[in-house]
Amino acid sequence: xxxxxxxxxxxxxxxxxxxxxxxxxxxxxxxxxxxxxxxxxxxxxxxxxxxxxxxxxxxxxxxxxxxxxxxxxxxxxxxxxxxxxxxxxxxxxxxxxxxxxxxxxxxxxxxxxxxxxxxxxxxxxxxxxxxxxxxxxxxxxxxxxxxxxxxxxxxxxxxxxxxxxxxxxxxxxxxxxxxxxxxxxxxxxxxxxxxxxxxx
Length: 200
What we know:
The protein is mainly α. 66% of the residues lie in helices and 0% in strands. It starts with 5 loop residues before the first helix and ends in an 8-residue tail after the last helix.
């Protein structure tokens, strides 16, 4: 019998043999913001997301693969299920805690490189400069260990992390979240949000 987290990992990562193949096949799911994909995520995994948000999946937190799946339920899936609402970020604090626990155990190094991206994205999502700096270090190491034919893919992930880090270094928060979270944007933030690429 397969592990309870395997259907989620199969859906998220598909069956590509290389990181480039997985990213090409699943990139639109990860970053595409399509209503049909959000609906599918809700239909298939809403119950598990609710359990994860309530801290109710301890059995998923004791192996690298279960740890990864639990983090997806806390960090990625709420952004789909609750898109453009404050609930989209409701799992972030738990995801950060869980990520740091597994990183301390070296569990990320037991995952495939493309899977490790979604551990480090937890840090990249944080409105805290120290965690942004940590994300940069991990993505830099990930690029350094990438296969020659996949350097461009992982360089792209590092570039995106660096862009997030610069925003937090400048504003100490992500201005594009302000409207969703009911925060008032400063004049500087409002001007920044008019710039191309200011909304991740």
